[in-house]
Amino acid sequence: MTIFVIQILNSLFYAAVLFLIAAGLSLIYGVMRIVNLAHGSLYALGAYVSAWIVGSAVGHALEGNLGLAGMLLLLPLGAIAVAAVGALIEPTLLRPLYRRSEEYHLLVTFGLLMILEDLMKLLFGRTPLSAGAIMDRMGSIPVGRLMYPTYNLFVVAIGLAAAIGLWAFIYRTKFGVILRATSQDRRMAAALGIDVSRVYVQAFAIGCFMAGLGGAVVVPAQAAVLGLGIEVLILAFVVVVIGGLGSLQGALVGALIVSFVRTAGIQFFPEIELAVLYLIAAAVLLIRPTGLFGRA
């Protein structure tokens, strides 16, 4: 029974991280109709920046003064840095391509993926970076006869808060109304006086922030290493294929499905756990091509 509870907690932890990534990917597509292949690299960049700030640059030097609360406050700086990068990428690389076909978007974002991977290698080197001091400071709680990291529960709470906050931001604020209006009809929104270019910059920056936040919250539990974003990008696409690209609700449900299936797969059939995820995604596409909550 204890193992079963821990598996559920691990699934929720992994679902929280996947949701942060997939929600950003869905938001960017929902507003701008861009499939961002560099999204996984932005996740990895957030992980690297947060690990560097907490673990290497500031964390060790001020650890005695900052304590746990201070290190937790430093953790989101990686997400903020990724949002700033996104605010630069949209007007310089993506905006000139909006009137072109989707193939150009895919090629540019794939090229951006390669550039970011090399840039992280140049800036941070090949040595893995970690913010494990946070996880050590938070300790563990007893779950039956075993101990479970308290930080994992903290990440689940962050994922839940992010889901509620993003939903409220999109559906209960004036900017959310503008965002949805722009996503439905860009020309009409511009005719009504909405600054579409500004909305696009903000939407892309928010999507990048979500990816960076996913990377930031994972580095206390998992080291930032080269190639970190590639596997996550594949899983994020599986999430949005199942849930529906452009749907916040789909990102949440898809993340839960993928995380629970993968956790069970690693435990019971590790040889084919990825194949099972792809089969689920293929089945959803056959039955409902737009995903469970996507719209044509």
Automatic annotation (TrEMBL):
Residues that span the membrane, as ranges: 12-30, 42-62, 68-94, 106-124, 151-171, 192-217, 275-294
Keyword tags: Amino-acid transport, Cell membrane, Membrane, Transmembrane, Transmembrane helix, Transport
Membrane topology value: Multi-pass membrane protein
GO molecular-function term, one example from the UniProt record: transmembrane transporter activity
Pfam families to which the protein is assigned, alphabetical: BPD_transp_2
Gene Ontology, cellular component aspect: plasma membrane
InterPro entries: ABC_transp_permease, BCAA_transport_permease
Principal location listed in the UniProt entry: membrane
Location in or out of the cell: Cell membrane
A biological process term (GO) from this entry: amino acid transport
Family assignment from sequence similarity: Belongs to the binding-protein-dependent transport system permease family. LivHM subfamily.
Name of this chain's protein: Branched-chain amino acid ABC transporter permease
